[in-house]
Design goal:
The chain is 72% helix and 0% strand. By secondary structure, it is mainly α. It has one domain: Arc Repressor Mutant, subunit A (Orthogonal Bundle), CATH 1.10.10. Helix 9 crosses helix 10. The protein starts with a helix and ends with a helix.
Length: 186
């Protein structure tokens, strides 16, 4: 990290090669595997990592630093293209997570729930959306999310609580959303 931050091109290349799979995984988790901008956003995140090296204080691991940048970059990309993708989600854009569902209807329900979560995250304030994405989508513990976000653990807990509460309110207020979340199929 230090050599890359100092302008060593070989170190920067080595850094990007080593964190590239994590960048791609995070971007795919936030955007969806078949989102048309996955590769572009991944490159944008890689550039943001290089530009952010001078701000890296070493208070977390390099991987956490990189993943946070990837989440922020992907969330910004989702916000930029929100309307184009909200109105035309496809089931196969959501195949990035292995699913233990036993029938096609369960698989379709799980895909709809992931697409719904992405849409609902766009409506949350950025700080809450980041915390929810790290914890719910990427499976980080609250402590890990706090480390990545550079925020106190209680702040992250509060953001999660407020974000998840806002998501619950939106879902409970709309019977159609409630059915998708519960996995209702006929």
């Amino acid at each position: 990290m230090r050599a890359a931050a100092a302008g060593d091109e070989a170190a920067a290349t080595t850094l990007l090669v080593s964190v590239g799979p994590a960048l791609l995984r995070v971007v795919r988790s936030v955007l969806g595997v078949n989102h048309p901008e996955v590769q572009d956003v991944c490159q944008e995140a890689a550039l943001a990592v290089l530009l952010g090296l001078s701000r890296f204080r070493g208070e977390c691991t390099t991987l956490h630093f990189v993943c946070r940048i990837a989440v922020l970059t992907a969330m910004n990309a989702r916000r930029r293209s929100r309307f184009a993708y909200q109105n035309a989600p496809t089931v196969d854009e959501d195949e990035e997570l292995p699913d233990t569902a036993s029938c096609p209807a369960d698989l379709a329900d799980a895909a709809r729930r992931r697409a719904l979560l992405r849409q609902l995250l766009d409506q949350l304030p950025m700080a809450q959306a980041e915390a929810v994405a790290l914890h719910v989508v990427l499976g980080y513990t609250v402590d890990e999310a706090a480390s990545v976000l550079g925020a106190p653990v209680n702040t992250v807990r509060s953001r999660l609580r407020r974000g998840l509460s806002a998501l619950r309110q939106q879902i409970n207020a709309d019977n159609g959303l409630l059915e998708v979340v519960r996995g209702c199929h006929e």
